[in-house]
Amino acid sequence: xxxxxxxxxxxxxxxxxxxxxxxxxxxxxxxSVRWDQTCHVCNRNVSVGSIHIExxxxxxxxxxxxxxxxxxxxxxxxxxxxxxxxHDVFNELGVKMAKFSMIxxxxxxxxxxxxxxxxxKKNFRGFxxxxxxxxxxxxxxxxxxxxxxxxxxxxxxxxxxSLVERQTNLKxxxxxxxxxxxxxxxxxxxxxxxxxxxxxxxxxAKLIKSHNxxxxxxxxxxxxAPGGVMD
Length: 231
What we know:
5-stranded parallel β-sheet, alpha/beta, 2 domains, Rossmann fold, 8 helices
C-alpha cells in the first residue's frame, strides 16, 4: 500500500465504502446528474451544449455542458477538497467527468483548456482543480490540452458579489498565453469545476473571441449551481 493511500484512504464520501471517493451507488442515490442540459442564459431546455438563438446576444459562450447539479453531496466534496488541499479526489472526478463527456457533440479541430487559478490561490492550494479535470477530459476525448489563458491579476473571491462587482473584479483579469495559439482550432472547450453565474467563463470566452471571432467557445464543468442562470 502506498503511503498516500494509508494517509488518505479512498472511502466514498457518501457511504464510506472503500475503493472510491464517490461510488456509483451514491451517484445514483445522492447526486443529480444533468442528462438533460439547459440553456445557460435562460435555463430552459435546449439541445446538448447549445443556446437559444434569442439568448445568443447575451453571452460569449456558445454553450455550457455540466455533469452534476451543485448541491448536496457534490457540493460537500468540491468544498472539502478545495479547502483541505487533497487533489487526488479531483483526479477521480476528472475520470468520471471525462466519461460523461460522451454526451458532447463531435467537434472538428477541438482544443481543451481550463480556467487559470488565481496565482496566490494556486501557490497556497498547490493545484488547479480545473486543470486536473480538463486534462482528464482532453485525454479521454483524444484531443490536445493547452494552457490558453493566464491570470493577469489576483481577483477577489466573487461569492456574494453583484453583477457589476463581478464585472469590475474580472476586468483585464485574463490574457492569452500566445496570440498564435488559437489559429489551428475551430472549437474550444473551457473546463472549470463549478458554474455559478458564469461570469468568469463568459469573460474568458469574451477574450478568446476578441482574438478569433470565428472560434466557437464552450464551457464544460463538473457541476452547475441550481438554476445556474447567467447574470
